[in-house]
Amino acid sequence: MTVNEKAAYLKGLFDGLDIKKDTDEGKLFASLIDTIAEMASHIHELEVQHDAICDELDLIEEALEDIDDAIDDLDSDLSDLDDDLEEITEMIDPDYERLYGYDEDEDEDDDDDVVDWEEDYYELTCPSCGEEIVVDEDVLAKGEMKCPTCGEDLEFDLSSLEGGCSCGCQDEDEDNEGECDCGCKHEH
């Protein structure tokens, strides 16, 4: 029996006992039974609210599990994207780590990650997209590379370096402060 059913049983029992309600004992029993019935009603309401709250908490727990799964999936996707980005960077510029001093396995605070600018580096401009690219002698010696911005194949002809600049010109123009006649602005 529920609490409401037990309170109703007590009220029925009291009514069936022929206890006179106008006596002191009758008034006491009637008052106690009314109080018990009121308490039973409040307890029933609390049980209903408790059940509703438990159902909502179950829904919230399921939603949190779904969010946790989504975060795990997103973390995995970001890790895959980071790996893909690293592969793309290496395909575009295989000398990326050496030129820019980036090594994923080394500590970020390590001073070895810094580019040594005392070596010879050259700044090139892609004829297709206009992007300025910094390369070292090893990249130039290969004779070709892809532009990291647009993917254009860039070829280098170093045969003219003896006696002139890399654009192939041979003469300096004294009026252009050490620049050649073609305006390439390479130092001679």
Question: Could you explain the architecture of this structure?
Answer:
There is one protein chain. The protein has 188 residues and is mainly alpha-helical. The chain has helices at residues 3-16, 24-92, 96-100, 137-142, and strands spanning 121-125, 132-136, 144-146, 153-155. Strands 1-2 form a two-stranded antiparallel sheet. It has a two-stranded antiparallel sheet with strand order 3-4. Helix 1 (3-16) packs antiparallel against helix 2 (24-92). The radius of gyration is 43 Å and the shape is rod-shaped. The model has no long low-confidence stretch (mean pLDDT 78).
Query: Which geometry do the CA atoms define?
Result: rod-shaped
Order of helices and strands: HHHEEHEE
| Extended strand count | 4
Poorly predicted ranges: none
Strand order of the largest sheet: 1-2
Estimate the helix proportion, in percent: 40-55%
Strand content: 5-15%
Structural class, by secondary structure, is mainly alpha
Largest sheet: 2 strands, antiparallel
What gap, in angstroms, lies between the N and C termini?
Answer: 105 Å
Query: How many helices in DSSP terms?
Result: 4
Question: For the CA atoms, what is the radius of gyration?
Answer: 43 Å
> Mean pLDDT, rounded to whole units?
78
